[in-house]
Amino acid sequence: MRLHLIDGSHVAGHSFGADREVCGEVVFNTGMSGYVETLTDPSYRGQILVLTYPLQGNYGVPDGPFESSRIQVEGLVVTRYSSRGSHHALRGSLGDWLRSQGVPAIEGVDTRTLTRRLREHGTMQGYLLRASTTIEAARESVRPVEMSSVAELVAQGEITRFPGGDARVLVIDTGAKISIIRKLQARGATVILAPFAARWEALLDEVDGVVLTNGPGDPADLMHLVRAKSARY
């Protein structure tokens, strides 16, 4: 497989994920560990993720912690993949996990050089393609996730309450990581998680504080949600 950037450049690699072609914004993460949490972070929904740390998969996929119930990235690009993980809570390899959720991935890429290119030119759309697929054919057949609606895809569908202490916190969900809720509970807070489009204003009188979460894509892409909320109230 290869990663083809919209500027015409491309890099080849070896597939270790799902046998599937995808399109998405190409972004990078420089963390030295935590690929399980990163891949399940709703902030990366609809994006092809480049990991700069050279070895990935060395502890496989443990029982958690996860940031959501599924892998959120469209595709994964790494320098070197380790198919044999070592972890006391190991439940499978990174490649097996990616394949089980239909997420393509390639290794053998100089991800640090690729990251420097992204730093210089900004986030670019890219395609993860089989060797036999032309970019012209991919543009016709492979469609990216619509980033203007991606926050609605990753937000919880209904208002959910998580028991905790006396303090009560409203978390407005535009793609919240589960660790935000866990950390608030650990600090003695009862959490009310409300999707952005819900009528969360009615909950303000019963909480002590409000948390606005991060989420996928450019915040400017969510202005239609802001306008809709303003029109409603």
SS class: alpha/beta
* Shape estimate: globular
- Mean of pLDDT: 90
Q: Biggest β-sheet, characterized?
A: 8 strands, mixed
As a percent range, the share of strand residues is 25-35%
Q: What is the β-strand count?
A: 14
List low-pLDDT spans: none
Oligomeric state of the chains present here? single chain
Please provide the ordered H/E string of secondary-structure elements: EEEEHEEEEHEHEHHEEHEEH
How far apart, in Å, are the first and last alpha carbons? Answer: 49 Å
Q: How do the strands line up in the largest sheet? A: 2-1-10-4-5-7-9-3
Structural summary, described in words:
The chain is of the alpha/beta class. Helix content is 23%, strand content 25%. The protein has an eight-stranded mixed sheet. It has a four-stranded mixed sheet with strand order 11-13-12-14, with helices on one face. The chain has a two-stranded parallel ribbon with strand order 6-8. It is globular.
